[in-house]
Amino acid sequence: MLVRERPDSAPELLMVERAQGMAFAGGALVFPGGRIDDGDRSLAADEASAAAVAAIRETVEETAIPAGLDPVPDQTLSIQLQRELLADDPFGALLQRHGLRLELDSLIPFARWVPKFHSTRRFDTLFFLASAPAPLREPRVVEGECSGASWITAAEALERDRVGDARLIFPTRRNLERIALHESFEALRADAQAHAIEPITPWVEEIGGENFITIPEGIGYPVTRERLDGLWRG
């Protein structure tokens, strides 16, 4: 969850729209990211660090925004890295070739979601906060990776979902509501550090004759349940 601060507005987030044909959450507005691969693990000391490596790699691959790299690549090198990753060049080899280092400490663990809505798929997703690298730049998307990408405030993303201009899955909506409570990256950092990173597994419960998907209270989220009827889960 890359955050860029603006002088006269709430912080903006980098979000991508998944391609319509994707098996999971096709067309959804999500944060950049993807699965951990063996190359990510080879660059990490443990599984949490491997997740951070994957977040950095996937963000470059999907948007050419070079978060978590030192020195920060310029626009030309960022696009080159994106092209080389899309050509399946190993991430570790690219870092060495271009004299880049991973700055895993710049990614702040925010939440871990382990939903079980799908009988055939199990997801264990770590969400990280990171400050957008300077200078500020616009995302570059490649056909097949995602259908679009933009900087948008949490409130704007939630409003787009409310009026039907975007689609959000349950964990993304809850994270956006939590982010929308804060007006700076430092406030978001403090919020992340104030809550333990424990697995969040939503469950279904009946309240007043209606079914709701629910998460625990007291873990930072202002909204902890949503009606199951009509809920789009990807």
Helices, strands, pairings?
Elements: E1 2-6, E2 9-17, E3 29-30, H1 38-42, H2 47-63, E4 69-70, H3 75-86, H4 91-97, E5 101-102, E6 108-113, E7 125-131, E8 148-153, H5 154-163, H6 170-179, H7 185-193, E9 199-200, E10 203-207, E11 210-214, E12 225-227
Parallel strand pairs: 1-7, 6-9
Antiparallel strand pairs: 1-2, 2-3, 2-8, 4-5, 6-7, 10-11, 11-12
Helix pairs in contact: 2-3, 5-6
Largest beta-sheet details: 7 strands, mixed
Shape: globular
Integer average pLDDT: 91
> Which quaternary structure do these chains form?
single chain
SSE class: alpha+beta
Over the alpha carbons, how many angstroms does the gyration radius reach?
18 Å
Q: Count all strands and give the number.
A: 12
Helical content band? 25-40%
Helix-strand pattern, N to C? EEEHHEHHEEEEHHHEEEE
Description:
With 234 residues, this protein is an alpha+beta fold. Helix content is 30%, strand content 23%. The protein contains seven helices and twelve strands. The strands form three sheets. Strands 1, 2, 3, 6, 7, 8 and 9 form a seven-stranded mixed β-sheet that branches. The protein has a three-stranded antiparallel β-sheet with strand order 10-11-12, with no helix packed on it. Strand 10 (203-207) and strand 11 form a beta hairpin. Helix 2 packs across helix 3 (75-86) and helix 5 (154-163) crosses helix 6.
